[in-house]
């Protein structure tokens, strides 16, 4: 790890100015992602600008239209908030399953959204080929060990998997990410994570001097009846082999789907919204055969890169199981 300067500005404007004036400066909140990357020599900032104590940045505000979560709020504080437990149970489950207790007590909501892939080729600079770490160098994972890598949203330049849990629940619930840099900008969660395309090292539509200030999640019947299911190789702290965030609203007859939300984690280059599944279920009878048929659509366009083909079978099963659990069929 290299030497670096540390500062703690008192306002968001001062923090943004500090980062804008130094090409190798980085924002620091909980540090559970950034410090890890610094230890791996993937990140080498010369200046860490601490935003963890900026006034109001850790606020959790609940209103009739939804919930606004400050970017510096800790994962634990959000998961334990009564409104989250009551109105967004799937989001709470994703937070609790996303990290150990010690990490949740430190990790911030904004930093969680910005976490980077767990691809071993990205995190080990001894591998020269990594288009995320060194654009134009190639992708060692394509011909390497890629059991944990993505089957959806990949390209010939990168097949790394987005590793998070919380953002998958946000994807299912149509969240919005608010960013500040002289002006306020809001991104629908699906637009906040960029497809790999020709530049897999560019993961978000914001500059390094733009500060995430909050996440807003709208209230909905589907959010109140939501669930997050995570399947992994071991029950202790581990990243998802596949996960599903789902929300459900039934018609008054209790049998017909009025609204349904499905997002997948652990299988794609970004939190993956399975809109084909949703379209196939809306207006249909909520029963196991219908659910399983619809969930097969979740992996349309998926690609087996050699070791990860099992995810093509696993993902529809995880999505179907999550839906049946939230709908009381399992």
TrEMBL record:
FAD-binding PCMH-type domain sequence ranges: 1-222
InterPro entries associated with the record: CO_DH_flav_C (IPR005107), CO_DH_flav_C_dom_sf (IPR036683), Diverse_Substr_Oxidored (IPR051312), FAD-bd_PCMH (IPR016166), FAD-bd_PCMH-like_sf (IPR036318), FAD-bd_PCMH_sub1 (IPR016167), FAD-bd_PCMH_sub2 (IPR016169), Mopterin_DH_FAD-bd (IPR002346)
SUPFAM superfamilies: CO dehydrogenase flavoprotein C-terminal domain-like (SSF55447), FAD-binding/transporter-associated domain-like (SSF56176)
Domain of life per record: Bacteria
Keywords assigned by UniProt, alphabetized: FAD, Flavoprotein
GO molecular function: FAD binding; oxidoreductase activity
PANTHER family: OXIDOREDUCTASE, XANTHINE DEHYDROGENASE SUBUNIT C-RELATED
Protein name: FAD-binding molybdopterin dehydrogenase
Organism, scientific name: Sphingomonas lenta
Lineage: Bacteria, Pseudomonadati, Pseudomonadota, Alphaproteobacteria, Sphingomonadales
């Amino acid at each position: 790890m290299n030497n670096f300067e540390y500062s703690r500005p008192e306002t968001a404007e001062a923090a943004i100015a500090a980062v804008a004036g130094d090409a190798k400066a980085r924002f620091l909140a909980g540090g559970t992602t950034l410090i890890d990357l610094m230890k791996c020599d993937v990140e080498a900032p010369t200046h860490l600008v601490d935003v963890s104590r900026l006034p109001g940045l850790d606020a959790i505000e609940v209103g009739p239209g939804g919930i606004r979560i400050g970017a510096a709020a800790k994962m634990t504080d959000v998961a334990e908030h009564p409104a989250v437990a009551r109105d967004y149970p799937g989001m709470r489950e994703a937070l609790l399953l996303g990290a150990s207790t010690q990490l949740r007590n430190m990790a911030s909501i904004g930093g969680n959204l910005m976490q980077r892939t767990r691809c071993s080729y990205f995190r080990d600079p001894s591998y020269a080929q990594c288009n995320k770490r060194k654009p134009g160098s190639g992708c060692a994972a394509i011909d390497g060990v890629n059991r944990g890598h993505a089957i959806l949203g990949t390209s010939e330049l990168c097949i790394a998997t987005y590793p998070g849990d919380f953002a998958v629940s946000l994807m299912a619930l149509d969240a919005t990410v608010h960013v500040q840099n002289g002006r306020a900008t809001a991104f629908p969660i699906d637009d906040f994570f960029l497809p790999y395309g020709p530049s897999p090292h560019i993961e978000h539509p914001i500059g390094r001097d733009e500060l995430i200030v909050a996440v807003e999640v709208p209230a909905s019947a589907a959010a109140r009846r939501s669930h997050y299911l995570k399947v992994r190789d071991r029950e202790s702290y581990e990243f998802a082999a596949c996960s599903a965030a789902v929300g459900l609203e039934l018609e008054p007859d209790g049998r017909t789907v009025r609204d349904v939300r499905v997002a997948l984690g652990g299988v794609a280059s970004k939190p993956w919204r399975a809109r084909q599944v949703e379209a196939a279920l809306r207006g249909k009878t909520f029963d196991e055969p219908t659910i399983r048929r619809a969930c097969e659509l979740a992996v349309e366009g998926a690609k087996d890169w050699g070791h990860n083909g099992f995810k093509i079978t696993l993902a529809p099963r995880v999505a179907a199981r999550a839906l049946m659990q939230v709908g009381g069929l399992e």
